[in-house]
Amino acid sequence: ISLFLAVIAIAPLRLFLQIRFLLLAKGVEVLFNACAPVALMLFFGLICGTLPELFKVSEQSDAKKSWTPFVVSLSLAFLFFHLLENMSGITIPPSFFAFMFCGFLWGLSTIVPGLSSSSILICFGLYEPMTEGIAALDPRVLLPMLLGIAVTALSLARLVNMLYKKHYATTSRIVLGFVVASSIKIVPAKFDSIPILIISLLCFVLGFIVARGMDIAQRKQQNSSLEKGV
Q1: Is residue 106 within 8 Å of residue 145, measured between CB atoms?
Q2: Dist CA 192 CA 194 (whole Å)
Q3: Fewest CB atoms within 10 Å of the CB: 2, 23, 136, 153?
Q4: Residues of 78-96 as b/e, b for ≥16 C-beta within 10 angstroms?
């Protein structure tokens, strides 16, 4: 009951954050349809822009703690994606359970700091059909996603909170390794032309600057709030 009440208590904030994504879904769909490499590099830049702050927070949590969990997680995750891609193709066909998996990852990313569900879903080829379904308000996409989110919130919220509370440094570094590996895998292997390459690189820089700027602004706001509290 306490877990359910906790989920309900944070639901308005989480809902607001998810609504922002819903409002961007149509734009994401258009961008992917127009030029997938540009869209992927923009996402890669946005993810990379959040990494400096995540590494900094993890380091500050326990500077003496080894970064071995990060190296192991990065290596295993990269190997997993590489083997999966070479063995049978990494794309998962859209289906009820595939969109439920999207919801599961989306819900997980709201309770695991730093985890990017977008890069993972892009790796599996589910991001575009998911955003298309959200933009079209397709119940065949929305219902299984909501089910996946609910399963995540009810089953993993307490476990994740406990791990971050008792073993923040180790847990955060394991997550960081997975995030970095999944992000690298979304980088396009080739570009159709030099102009597309240039635009893609500019979008990467833009995404990095935007994400980094938002993190810096958030940290300043937090520091300001702490000073006022003192």
Answers
A1: yes
A2: 7
A3: 2
A4: beebeeeeeeeeeebebee
Cα–chain center distance at 91:
18
DSSP codes, 2-55? HHHHHHHHHHHHHHHHHHHHHHHHHHHHHHHHH-HHHHHHHHHHHHHHHHHHHH
Please state, in angstroms and rounded to a whole number, the distance separating the CA atoms of residues 185 and 174.
17
Structure tokens at 28: 């994401």
- What's the pLDDT tens digit per position in 114-159? 677 777 787 788 888 888 888 788 889 889 998 988 888 888 878 8
pTM of the full predicted structure? 0.69
Q: Report helix angle 96-111 to 139-166, nearest 10.
A: 30
